[in-house]
Amino acid sequence: MNLINEATGEYLGNDDIIKVAKKILKSRATRKGAALTSPQMTRDFLTFEIGQLEYEVFSVLFLDQRHRMIKFETLFTGTIDGASVYPREVVKRALELNAAAVIFAHNHPSGVPEPSSADERITKRLKDALALVDIRVLDHFVVGNECVSFAERGLI
Predict the structure, then answer these.
(1) How far apart are CA 111 and CA 26, in angstroms?
(2) Under DSSP, is residue 145 helix (H, G, I), strand (E, B) or coil?
(3) Residue 23 DSSP SS3
(4) What is the pLDDT of residue 19?
(5) What pairs with residue 76 in β-bridges?
(6) How far is 132 from 135, CA to CA, in rounded Å?
(7) Sign of the CA dihedral with 137 first, then 142, 148, and 154 last
(8) What's the distance, Cα to Cα, between the start and end of the chain in Å?
């Protein structure tokens, strides 16, 4: 598939095509009134946002009561095999943004998206902390060569 830059008339390279696709996905997910209505839409968005990073990040999709995105933020950045996550900071940011629900996401730079026991423990801690202030945790995605959903696996 060849895409042409309308301004310059030049063919777009693979990196340019990925940037365009990322921009389209982000605009669909963040336009006013748009809701993340399917796990696949969320997977696509997260894959483009954090899937290609060479270091681990922990990100949060902050959602309103209708599951429309308020904001997507990377709250913690780590190394090639881990990132420290602090529940207090997640709760604090969710309250600042007046979020009603959240979706967590982190990447595995190794490409293997299998959730670890540490991933399960921090998800439970975050879910418990957010429940105290009536913020629902809808899912936690691990992004690697694929995207694994905790909700689909019955882990949330």
Answers:
(1) 22
(2) coil
(3) helix
(4) 65
(5) 58
(6) 8
(7) negative
(8) 39
H or E segment at 139? Answer: strand 136-143
* Residue 140 buriedness (CB in 10 A; 0-12 / 13-18 / 19+): buried
Give pLDDT, residue 53.
94
What is the C-alpha separation between 135 and 93, in angstroms, rounded? 12
Parallel, antiparallel, or unpaired for β 57-63 and 101-107? Answer: antiparallel
The structure tokens 């669909």 sit at: 28
Contacts of 154 (CB under 8 A, 6+ apart): none
Per-residue pLDDT of the chain (156 residues; tens, 9 = 90+): 566 766 676 766 766 666 666 666 555 555 545 677 778 889 999 999 999 999 999 999 999 999 999 999 999 999 988 899 999 999 999 999 999 999 999 999 999 999 999 999 999 999 999 999 999 999 999 999 999 999 999 998
The position carrying tokens 């418990």 is: 128
58 close to 96: Cβ distance less than 8 angstroms: no
| Token duo for residue 147 | 């995207």
